[in-house]
Structure formats: structure tokens, C-alpha cells
From TrEMBL, chain A:
MF GO annotations: metal ion binding; protein serine/threonine phosphatase activity
InterPro entries xrefs: PPM-type-like_dom_sf, PPM-type_phosphatase-like_dom, PPTC7
Keyword list, A-Z: Hydrolase, Magnesium, Manganese, Metal-binding, Protein phosphatase
Primary enzyme class: hydrolase
Highest rank taxon of the organism: Eukaryota
Pfam families the record matches: SpoIIE
Name listed for the protein in its UniProt record: Protein phosphatase
Originating organism: Geospiza parvula (Small tree-finch)
Catalysed reaction, written as an equation: O-phospho-L-threonyl-[protein] + H2O = L-threonyl-[protein] + phosphate; O-phospho-L-seryl-[protein] + H2O = L-seryl-[protein] + phosphate
TrEMBL record, chain B:
Keywords: Leucine-rich repeat, Ubl conjugation pathway
Gene from which the chain derives: FBXL4
Pfam families in alphabetical order: DUF7885, F-box-like
The keyword Chloroplast belongs to this UniProt entry's keyword annotation: no
GO cellular component terms, semicolon-separated: SCF ubiquitin ligase complex
Listed Gene3D superfamilies: 1.20.1280.50, Ribonuclease Inhibitor
Protein name from the UniProt record: F-box and leucine rich repeat protein 4
Cited CDD domains: F-box_FBXL4
Biological process according to GO: SCF-dependent proteasomal ubiquitin-dependent protein catabolic process
Taxonomic source organism: Geospiza parvula (Small tree-finch)
InterPro entries: F-box-like_dom_sf, F-box_dom, FBXL15_LRR, Leu-rich_rpt_Cys-con_subtyp, LRR_dom_sf
Presence of keyword GTP-binding: no
Amino acid sequence: MFSVLSYGRLVARAVLGGLSQTDSRDYSLVTASCGFGKDFRKGILKKGMCYGDDACFVARHRTADVLGVADGVGGWRDYGVDPSQFSGTLMRTCERLVKEGRFVPSNPVGILTAGYCELLQNKVPLLGSSTACIVVLDRSSHRLHTANLGDSGFLVVRQHYFNTPFQLSIAPPEAEGVVLSDSPEAADSTSFDVQLGDIILTATDGLFDNMPDYMILQELKKLKNSNYESIQQTARSIAEQAHELFACDNGLNVRGGKPDDITVLLSIVAEYTD
Amino acid sequence: MPPVFPMLTVLSMFYYMCLRRRARTATRGEMNSRRAIESNTRALPINVEIVQYAKEVLDFSSHYGSENSMSYTMWNLAGIPNVYPSSGDFTQTAVFRTYGTWWDRCPSARLPFKRTPSTFCSQDYVELAFEEPVYPTAVHILETYHPGAVVRILACSANPYSQNPPAEVRWEILWSEAPSKVNGPQARQFTPCIKQINFPTNLIRLEVNSSLLDYYTELDAVVLHGVKERPVLSLKTSMIDMNDIDEDEDEEKFACGMDALNKQFSIVTLREWPTNGYFDKLPYELIQLILSHLTVPDLCRLAQTCKLLYQHCCDPLQYIHLSLQPYWARINDTSLEHLQSRCTLIQWLNLSWTGNRGAISVSGFSRFLKVCGSELVRLELSCGHFLNETCLEVITEMCPNLQELNLSSCDKIPPQAFNHIAKVGSLKRLILYRTKVEQTALLSILNFCSELQHLSLGSCVMIEDYDLIASMMGAKCKKLRSLDLWRCKNITESGIAELASGCQLLEELDLGWCPTLQSSTGCFTNLARKLPNLQKLFLTANRSVCDTDIEELAANCTHLRQLDILGTRMVSPASLRKLLESCKDLSLLDVSFCSQIDNRVVLELNANFPNVFIKKSFTQ
């Protein structure tokens, strides 16, 4: 009797769950990162996640998954300043703000602003500037909130049900900005709903400048499931392809790419499991 | 083999006796450590130890960081370590506002209260809440830079996460020690041997004394080890406990002294004696003088011995200067009520850190001041979270002679309530560090309190326009000698100009972390030329301070004793050399994170100017 009752309850719940339009499950981002410094050294070089002058972070909090990329402006090298110090510190600071819960998921610009303010609070006099892009997934509301300052960017790619091809939902903004003269509040901010299986590609201009969208989509198509290993593999393959586009053979740049640091964060919206 | 058993019994008795004797003769520290180990090993099998990092920082007396940021703030003590085991000066740690004795050696230094017991040396505190209440078995403090500041660890019986207000708030000292010098800035995990307590706790308080440190101490995280069930004590351990109670002088003093004050002061059932023996031959004043060396709890105890001494101990002349800060955990409305009758002549009163968690009520505080406020000259109320607008009103009404008022970190006082302070025209010192004082209230204080000599406005976040404040100071506060504007967000060269031309007696100026001051506007040059009496100048983290500023200081401010120019890229060794040559009194020079001043330069300057403490902090 008891088993029948509980079985019935399960069935009822399944039916109701199927009928209801709102998805009560929490979402999360499964994210892998890969990148190259333009001086052909691969992988994590400095403390934290830095590729050349680029830096990135992936952080989780109770209410949201947050990731970000920043591209340190290389011109500072002429002044004897390591450009990665600024971008790296900015990303590490944003990561800490997220981990400590000092942010509101719907306000990614706030993370950038607070991170920038913390840089000014450092006893060490930091010099430099960087572009930055922050992506926040609100677990329960299934909304993606983004902030973008400069020429880094992100793509959201959704696979349609009946074998329809991948489709671009949002393109990286073309406008170029410089952090030094802009306040972090100047960042473009957008919010939109996401679904399970949506792919979010966050990267610095090293990727978007070198690799056309169709090539990126082609690579993304190869992504079959949402486990970390396959995401990591796809991320690496995208970064490698972009890297090869400007890699020189025998000192000759035959493919016409622009040498730059590349940072790729590839995420899939999946059901939240803890 | 029957004879073996009696033999064993005799042996075990002998062993037991030895143990008892050892327990009695052992010093306190040894016993504590042994007891901690014993209880640990005993507790483990039946009772799993819980290890927790702090969940939240509830309260603290000061910090280096800004109120709207995380860097160098006490809030960094919550959660897992960010820096440990690295050593160095990192933003992710908790840093207090001061170190060493530098702040006691400037014009704004306050006189210490007499009768402070030697066991109390805390200068700052921080209170941490943990998730689960436990019987603590160990407390680990991860100190990542210049360790050695923690002098006391206390546990509270009240659960900060409980919905019901606690019937009784008890604080127990888990560990305490006099400050000791730790050599070097290297990180360490500090694990003192803590006392066992008989209630579960999830509220831990650290008290620090940084006076022996060479630089700011930085704390990364606090780990609380403990068990859910009360550890079962064996016969042996409880025996040691019994002995411990007899020998534990300090804690008894702390715990019972103020209880005696509360309970037994009012009951006078002392027998009448015809004479007081030799005491009758001593002059009244001499007995008074002898008693003036006693701490307050000792005075309370002495009052219970005989009628003559009771009379002496109740003489209001014994309570001209009264500091209740060392007994913050025990002071409540009742103790104030009992002290009331003998504090009618009180001039200095220190109630800092007291009265929190409902111990002192607004009405209790008001009643006390109504009786004892008339002669009051100095009132210290740092971290008094019970203070509200009514309290400030009572202070201004009842204390017409007040000259010094310390409200630092009283962050529960509403912004406009500070208006009342303007009525105390005799005010010479006002400390509003980390309060919510707002602009109009402060303007009216400055307008009416023209006697002000020392003013601290550090980290006052509610003030919108510091230039307005500075120009009011320049116009009205001609007697200002020290001014603390640490972390004021928007003062500019125009405010500085009005300040420098109006307050020419300034000897001490803290402009640390004022990011809107630009050297290119000439503000620092202006300061140096207008304020020749400057003894202390903090320009901490002003990235624009340059050689010109240093040279102007060298030329004009020859009495300079303390200078902080941390974090500027623009100052060269040559200008520092000039400064050191012309400012002979200079004893503190902080050049941390000045990129042109490397370790080699510091070594060279140290060799040529051995009397100057040149500070150079590091991150790695």
C-alpha cells in the first residue's frame, strides 16, 4: 500500500513537472579554460590564470556561477610595467568578490566596479589597463547577466531541437574601449534567459580577431555532451586553431592572423549538481 | 598470585599522590597545556571534533581598510585563509589601524588611565561568529605578517545566530598572555593552549596589543576546533581543576571582582569595632594614597573587610579617574548603579567596549550620567553599540565641562544625532573615527566648538563634502593641533588650502588614503609652507607625492617626527636623503611600496641615519 502511494506520488510529480512551464531546477555552468600567450608559451604561466597579458577566472557561489576574462593593454610595457599584473589582479579580485558573496548576480557591472575599486585600495601602486568581460549565471532564475568593457566578448550559442544548426544569439560588441579613461560603469551590460545545453564562449580579442565566427561554430558543433572533459577538449581545440592562424611558419606569417594572447572560457549550461 | 594485588594498589596510590602533588606545584601554563592534551585524547573517540573557519565578523574596534571595500579590513577574517602559508603585506588579510608606539608618541596621544590592571593590555579587538556552537578544544590563528599581537582569546556563551535573546551573556577567557616580541614578519599558525569551558560557544573574540610590533600585524583566518558534547572529565582532571581554581589569581580577579562589586557593595553588614588599631594613627590622605594603587575589583574587595576601609574605598576621591574598560565583559546597569554614589566627583570615565549585548541600557547610562556627569572632563565610549541619540543628548546636557569625547566605532549612533555634540562648547578633543556623523551635524560642531584641539574624522563615510568641512575648520577651529582625515574620500587642494591657512597650529595631520589630493595642484607644498610645526604627516597611498613635496617638507617642516609616503612611484632616494638631513627629529619614515626606494637604498639610509625607523613593507 505504502509503496503504491509513494509510486503514485512520484508519477504525479513527474506529470506535473512535465506540464509546468517553469523549470524549478537550478542551472549551473560547466566551464573549461584554455589559452596561449602570444610568445608561444602555453598554459598557466604566472600566479592565477594568466595567458600572456590575458587573465581569466571561474568562480562559483551559492547563487551564481561567474566567469570573466581580461586583456591587459600591452602598451604599458613601454613604461616598464607588466601589463598582465593589472589584468591578473583585476580578475583575482573579482574572483574573491564572488567567492565572498559580495555581488548581486543581476549586476555584473557591479563586480567589475568593485574589483576596480579594490585595485585602488591596494598598497602596491598598480599601473596598467585592461579590457574586461564578466558573465554571471543566476542559478535559480536561469538568467545570464553580462558586462563587457572593451574588445573582449562572449558568444551564446543555442542548439535547436530538430537538428537545426547552431545559431548566434549575441555577438561581441564592436566598440572599442580603454579602461584607463573609462569608468567600469561604462561597461555594456545585457541580461537574457538561458536554457539547458546553451553554450557560452567567453574570450579575449585574441580569439575573435583571429578566428571567424563560422570556424568557431564548426568547432562548437563537435561538442557532443556537457561533461568537463569534452568541454576542455573543445576549448583547447578552439584556442589551438586560433593560435595556429597567426603562428608563423619559418618566420612567415602566411595565414594572415594577428599575433595576440588568446584566452578561451567555454561553458555549457547544465543542471546544477552539488 | 595473591600478593601482587595489594602491591599494585599501593603503587597506584603512590602514583596518584605524585600526580596530585605535581598538579599543585605545576605552574598554570604547564597545567593548562597538559589538560588540553588530556582532554583532547579523551574526547576524540566518543565525540568527533568539529573544525570551523569563522563564518562572519560581527564587531571590531578598528581596521586599516576602507569601510566600502575588502582590502585590509577585519571582514577578511571570515572564511578560509587567503594568504597563509605565504608571508607578507597582502590586501586579503585583516589589519588593525595601528602598530608599535607611534600613535602614543604624537601630539594627539591620550594619557593612560591609572589603576589599569597589569593583566589588561588589549588595544583592539575583533569578534567572530562560527556556525556551530562547540566546546572549544583548540583555536588556531593564522597570522601572515608580523605575528604576535594577539594577547587574549575569549569565548561567549551567547549564540549570535539564536533567535531568542540570551538570558545571560558570559565571557570566559580561553587564553591570555602579556604581549611578547616575535622576531620577524614571517607567517605562523598560532595555537595557544586554551582553557576548557563549561558552555558551548560560537562567538570568539580576539584581543590584540600591537605595541611591540615593528609593523602592522595581519591576520588571515581563525580556526575553531571543538566538540558538540561536553567533554567528560575524569576524576584526575577534575582534581586538577579544583586546584586550579585556588591558584588562578587573574581569572578570579576578573570573574569575581566585578561580581563582588555588583552583589556585595550595597550590603553593609560589617561589625562595629571600637578602634581600628594602627590604622587610626595613619592620616586619612595616606590611606587614600595607598588605596589609589589598587585596581577597581581590589578596591571592591577591600571595602568588604572593615568599616574604616569601606569608608575609604567609597570615597569619591578614589574615583576621580575611572576606567571600566578592562572589565567590559562584566559591567552592566547594576554595576553602574552601585558605582553611582561614589563617582560624584568623577572627571575621567572610560566606558569603552562596555555595555554591548544589552549589558548597559540607555536608561542605565543616562541615570549614571545624571548623577556623575557634572564634573566629567573626559569620556571614552569607544565601541559602545548601545549608544543612541538619547545618550548623546544626555551627555551634552549632563556634562557641561566635557573636554574630551571618544565615540570611535560607535556605528549605531544615527547620523543626525551628532548634532547634540555642538552644545558642548568646551570640547577640546573629539574622536569620531568610524562613526556615521553627517555633514550638517559636523559643520555645526565645528562652528560651536572653537576650542577643539584634536579631531579625528577617520573613515567617516557619511560626509559628502570634505572641502566644506575643511574650510569650516580653517575658519573656526584656530586651535586645532591634530587632525585625522584618514580615508576621507573627496578632500581637494582647495580644502587643504583653507585648512592650512586657518589652522596654523597644526602639528599632526593624517591624510592617508585620500585619493583626491593631487600633488600637481601644489597642495602638499602649500601644507609644508604654511604648517612649520608639523610633527606627524601621513600621506599614505597618495600616488602623486613627489620629490618637490619631500624637498618642501625638508625645507620647512624641520620638526617632523613621523612621515608616511607609502605607495608613491615619484619619490627618489636623493630627496629622502635631503629630508633626513634636515629633519633631525624624524624617527618614523614609511617608504613601503615606493618603487624608487629599494632595499639597497633603505639599507644605505639606515646606515647613515641610525635613529630613524625606516619601514619598507613587502608582499612576497
